[in-house]
Amino acid sequence: MKNILIVAALALLTACTQTPDWDYDKSANFSNFKTFAWVENASLTKDTNNYQINGLMEKRVRTAVNAELSQTLGMRLVDTANADVLVNYHASVDKELEVDTFNVNYRPHWGYWGTGFQRDTTAREYEVGTLIIDIVDRESNQLVWRGAKEGRLKKNQSPEQREASINKTVSEILSNFPPQKQQ
Q1: d(Cα 66, Cα 171) in Å, to the nearest integer?
Q2: Whole-angstrom Cα distance, residue 52 to residue 41?
Q3: 183, 146, 161: which is closest to 60 by C-alpha?
């Protein structure tokens, strides 16, 4: 069941107002990173809070990351032994609760003067998906960069919509890799 949820999360991660979050090792020399490879079984982790995704979404995530690193950043995909950095990703789904309360003042219609007060509260549960991309220095085997984005999930998307959503999400996550110097 959790695998199905993670497939839905990645398939439905939409462009919401949530901005990506980044963290990185300030001592890492990112200008030395020219080649990359994938961590073996990148979507699998030992941590039970992260979930495996199916082959379709695995392919979409890898294709999007490969395109961003290769085409946008000029890095080259190579075998693990020759890579400067290793790429890994994780995905998760959490449930959130949205509660709205409306207060309404009204005048009764049955002839006496005064006002009434009514309070209406509604609650809706929804799912939030998170995609995390890690960049590991292969030589030191240390995490040097991490980017993440979460968003409210949409349902009933076509494969083309899922692919576009993943491409956009990965692009937004990797928009600060390598990290930009702060002025």
Answers
A1: 11
A2: 10
A3: 161
- Residue-level pLDDT at 64: 97
Of the candidates 157, 103, 130, the residue with the CA atom closest to the CA atom of residue 49: 130
Cα–Cα distance, 7 to 57 (Å, whole number): 7
Strand-strand pairing, 35-38 and 76-77:
parallel
**Which parts of the chain are beta strand (E)?**
21-24, 35-38, 76-77, 85-106, 116-137, 142-152
Residue at 142: amino acid letter? Q
pLDDT of residue 27: 93
Q: Which H or E run contains 162? A: helix 159-173
The ranges of the chain with pLDDT < 50 are: 1-17, 45-52, 183
